[in-house]
Amino acid sequence: MAIVLALCGMVLLGGGLWLAIEGGSWFYAPAGLALIACAVLLWRRQVAALHLYAALVVATLAWALVEIGLDWWALVPRGDVIFILGALLLLPWITRRLVPAQVGWWRNAGPLALTLILAGAIGLAAMLRSPHEWDGALPGARGAAPALAAGTDAGDWLAYGHTWAGTKWSPLAQLTPANVSGLKQVWRMDTGDSRRPGDPEEITYELTPIKVGDTLYACTPHNIVLALDAETGAVRWRYDPHMQVPSHVQHLTCRGVSYHDANWPGATRSADGSCPQRIIMATADARLIALDAHTGRLCPGFGKGGAVNLAVTGPGLKPGWFQFTSAPLVTRGLVVVGGAIYDNASIHMPSGAIQAFDIATGKPVWAFDPGRPEDTAPLGPNHPPVPSTPNSWSTAAADEDLGLIYLPMGMGAIDQWGGNRPPNTERFATSILALDIKTGKARWVFQTVHHDLWDMDVPAQPALVDLTIPGKGRVPALVQSTKTGNIFVLDRRTGLPIQPVHEMRVPGGAAHGDFTSPTQPVSAISLMPPRIREADMWGATLFDQMACRIAFRRYRHEGPFTPPSTRGTLVFPGNFGVMDWGGLAIDPVRQVAFAHPNYMAFVDRLIPQRPGAGNGKDGPAGASDRGGSAEHGFNPNAGAPFAVSMGPFLSRLGLPCQSPPWGYVAGIDLVTGKVAWRHANGTIRDETPLPIPLKLGVPSLGGPMMTGGGLSFMAASLDYYLRAYDTTTGRVLWRARLPAGAQATPMTYRSPASGRQFVVVVAGGHGSLGTRLGDSIIAYALPKS
User: Fold this and answer.
1) What is the largest CA-CA distance in the chain?
2) Residue 624 has what pLDDT?
3) Of 149, 542, 689, 723, whose CB is crowded by the most CB atoms within 10 A?
4) What is the Cα–Cα distance from 392 to 354, expressed in whole angstroms?
5) DSSP for residue 120
6) Are 187 and 771 a contacting pair, CB within 8 Å?
7) Phi first, then psi: what are they for 396, rounded to 5°?
8) Where are the strands (E) in 577-708, listed by range?
9) Do 259 and 158 form a contact (C-beta atoms < 8 A)?
10) Residue 35 class from Cβ within 10 Å (0-12 exposed, 13-18 middle, 19+ buried)?
């Protein structure tokens, strides 16, 4: 036992001195000395070893409580080793050798026993109440439900976000907090599409199906389209585009398909009357495909044989550097698409131009190119695209009454170094862009991050909702969640803030050849985390927590928006963002939002390019451009002065270096701007060798869905569950075990066959997130009885 104490003491002493030299806590080095002293005393069989150890326990408790208070999961690594070693010192075979029989066990071992009892009591108190939980209640109805578009049914889910307003809210109210516990699985359909040889690491099912009439429409990562019976899940037709996965594709996913009905008022009909109801899909190999919604056959009058090929070619451009991952926008007879650009491969990348096509013929109508914003003529030989401009890879929204479409914009070619970005194009980067539906002209732009160096693309579909604002009445609003944690509430007519936005001063000191913006916008509604501190470091034990503290001190971090550096910059919130493409769900009647913020730090390190590097194939680490993704690994940045290496801030044990919770659910009042409740969300059951359902609060990647019955549904977390929440309080009312990760957004509909309300989620996993892969579309409903 003395040897164990000595070894532990030497590790703490050495690491503690290193940490102190780096400017960190002085606790570890004295604690190491105390353990070494205890070891010496124990070796000499002196009872003073127990008394000194009792003092160490008291000192550890005092230090831990001052640093982080009654926070159970933060207390664990500070005290687990100390507590366990102390308990071992009380074993009879040790105390018998130290305590003379005439003195008695309690007199000599009692002080240590009492301090351990005290430590246990403090731990129990910390377990009973988490400082991270906020209880509260969201308000009830504030108005009427939005009017349905002519020719549509309330029981349908017509677009990725339910409608092109993107709220992910359904008025259906058959399911309520009172009966949701009765939900049962009704059917499960396995698509049969899974990872193939040559696929990238990031193959994902991020799909939200749509439902029209009695049919669900879904797509798979390889862009296979399925039409399913809404009541039974039986396959009605299947279309396979026989996609050849491009050799340099970064992501392989299909978040959804879109629907058009020529019988809707004002809708466009093909000249020959074919395919009056059609499914539109954009593919990973950059095709825009139109299918007959009833048969799954290609619509012959659309493009060439049912498809428009948008693949980009040119000197230095590789297949897969331009692709589609999200559902195209369908509005006023147009199909509008952006596109995903391979991140951080080269400074010479395809254009981020937004293009509109006639939904009947596939002919180009207009194109908005951030590099040439005043000229919206379709792309062609006389109007070539401007390369490396900001793109829109996520899902757009539309307000046909205002004649506007709203695009969440990303960045240009590379993320962490921006010294070569033209100011006239960068004003569209990391922004919300409103375009005129008819002409493609820019009507307004609102930038959410200035000169973005952190991959803070606006990732989620904007949500359009009318809000009742005191003193202003009913205002048409746009609510935009962001990776930074800001939730911007804008007047969607003008782009001006409804909820206040101020400019916050941020750190400077960019890499050579670059610059930083002196300020960044912060919304009055924000889930942005506080600045991360050394005291927030975590681990399984005192030792790896100390190592994380040392790493923290060695990286550059001066708060949010600390610029990337060759030293390595701690980016918090990290590249996955507080909120990613899953975004918010909004109840337009109650004017409240359901959010799922994540708090995971990343480390970005700029790597000076060596002479001759920069061909986009091999960089300093010898990694190919298939070796990493935009979220982790080596990214070559060919042609830039720096490559970049990035990844989550983890310990040597693979655990996050920051304390949990890492993921929450939160309820937000959009009128007052207040967060009404917040709860840690998800367990580590599927992240550990033993399936222990400890509720630490884990990251989620996907989105929520809300209903008129007072329920919110979400999967998305790292454990394999679909959960139903009481929208008012955020409490979990029901959950169902899933066969794989569900990094997708659920949807709901009413089946015409039975009149039941169904909830559907896709469990297909996520390659780079590490959840189990699958291929299941699963439906739940109340029993028919």
Assistant:
1) 106
2) 35
3) 542
4) 7
5) H
6) no
7) -90, 170
8) 585-587, 592-595, 602-608, 633-635, 642-648, 664-669, 675-680, 704-707
9) yes
10) buried
User: Can 455 be counted among the known catalytic residues?
Assistant: yes
Q: Are 599 and 663 in contact (CB under 8 A)?
A: yes
Catalytic residue among 193, 285, 455, 604: 455
In a 3-state reduction of DSSP, which class is residue 405? strand
Q: Which residue has the tokens 């160096």?
A: 453
Number of structural domains the chain divides into = 1
Q: Indicate the helix (H) or strand (E) that contains 355.
A: strand 354-358
| Cα dihedral value 121, 122, 127, 128, nearest 10 | 70
At residue 520, φ and ψ (nearest 5 deg) are -135, 145
In a domain, 97, yes or no: yes
Q: Where are the beta strands (DSSP E) in 86-224?
A: 169-170, 184-190, 210-212, 215-219
Return the closest-CA partner of residue 391 out of 448, 454, 343.
343
Side chain identity, residue 395: T
pLDDT at 148: 85
Quote the DSSP letter at residue 204. Answer: B
Structure confidence at residue 151 (pLDDT): 81
pLDDT at 619: 38
Local confidence band at 620 (pLDDT 50, 70, 90 cut-offs): very low
Compute the average pLDDT of residues 389-414. Answer: 96
Q: Is residue 728 part of a domain?
A: no
Q: Give the other-Cβ count within 10 Å of 730's Cβ.
A: 24
Q: How far apart are CA 106 and CA 95, in angstroms?
A: 10
Tokens representing residue 242 in the block: 């026989």
Task: Place 612 in a pLDDT band, splitting at 50, 70 and 90.
Answer: low
Give the contacts of 624 (CB within 8 A, at least 6 positions apart). Answer: 617, 618
Using a 10 angstrom Cβ sphere, with 0-12 exposed, 13-18 middle and 19 or more buried, the burial of residue 299 is buried
| pLDDT > 80? residue 6 | yes
* Residue 199 lies inside a defined structural domain of this protein: no
Show the domain range for 54: 2-128
| 8 Å CB contact between 455 and 415 | yes
Contact 174, 408 (CB under 8 A): no
737: exposed, middle or buried (Cβ count in 10 Å: 0-12, 13-18, 19+):
exposed
Element (H or E) spanning 567, and its range?
none
Distances (CA, A) of 604 to 293, 530, 645: 45, 19, 6
The answer to whether 633 and 718 are in contact (CB under 8 A) is no
* C-alpha 45, offset from chain centre: 56
With CA atoms as reference, report the closest residue to 32 among 87, 81, 91, 75: 81
φ and ψ at residue 331, rounded to 5 degrees: -160, 135
Measured in whole angstroms, how far is the alpha carbon of residue 285 from the centre of its chain? 24
| Residue 52 placed within a domain | yes
Which token pair is 744? 């997708």
Chain position carrying tokens 């018998």: 96
Dihedral of CA atoms 388, 393, 398, 404 in degrees, nearest 10, equals -10
